[in-house]
Amino acid sequence: MKKILLTKNNYKEFISKGSSNIYVSDNMILTAGAKDQIRNNNLKIIYGEQPKEDNNLLDEENLKNKVIEILKHDHDVTDKQKIDKVLKIVLKIVSKNK
Known about the structure:
Layout: E1 4-6, E2 21-24, E3 28-30, H1 32-40, E4 44-47, H2 59-75, H3 80-96
Parallel strand pairs: 1-3, 2-4
């Protein structure tokens, strides 16, 4: 069986949709660099197969994760208070448009 290598360059492809979890199954190899990046980005490593119920998490959680990713990676915003403030504004705007 062919193994999948999770590295610091491709770990984002394996983030479970709508959550901050990365499931590492038996056919995956997780590099030390990937582990560092995952932990630095407040993601959770879960060893084992991804449960089916984790595939259908709330859209709001997915939105939060995407906003946090954009703030951290595209704009170098890491201050938790600033991130929380932006999240609050975004969620307020989105809830008004529903």
